[in-house]
């Protein structure tokens, strides 16, 4: 009869082990790390868009590999919505390319910061 009682308590002991404070802290730490990584990536995306817009504003040398890389990366991160060619707002006339870059990629940078902040708030415990 003592054996029956031991086997009945064993599954209950396992259930209790799944809810230990140590395990909850592990899940909280994982969620915190995921939130931090997402926030970092979104902030990095915003930085790339901002620097890309700055390369147009400063008329950076387009033959430079770094300038070309930043502009290509910013073009990929604009999601098509904040594109310089077909973005939210299109400027014409003098310095249209610079204005398009500053306005559309600037909005794209703000968008990535908002997405990162919201993701951080929802994922973090």
Detailed description of the structure:
The chain crosses the membrane at residues 37-58, 102-119. Helix 2 crosses helix 3 (65-77) and helix 2 packs antiparallel against helix 4 (96-123). By secondary structure, this protein is mainly α. The protein has a domain at 43-125. The chain contains 4 helices and no strands.
Pick out the low-confidence regions. Answer: none
Which series of helices and strands comes N to C? HHHH
Shape: elongated
Strand-residue proportion: under 5%
Mean residue pLDDT:
86
Main sheet properties: none
Care to count the β-strands? 0
Could you give the distance between the termini? 45 Å
Instruction: Specify the number of helices.
Output: 4
Radius of gyration: 25 Å
Strand pairing plus helix content: what structural class?
A: mainly alpha
Summarize the structure.
With 125 residues, the chain is mainly α. It contains 4 helices and no strands.
Helices and strands, with pairings:
Blueprint: H1 2-18, H2 21-57, H3 65-77, H4 96-123
Keywords:
125 residues; mainly alpha; elongated
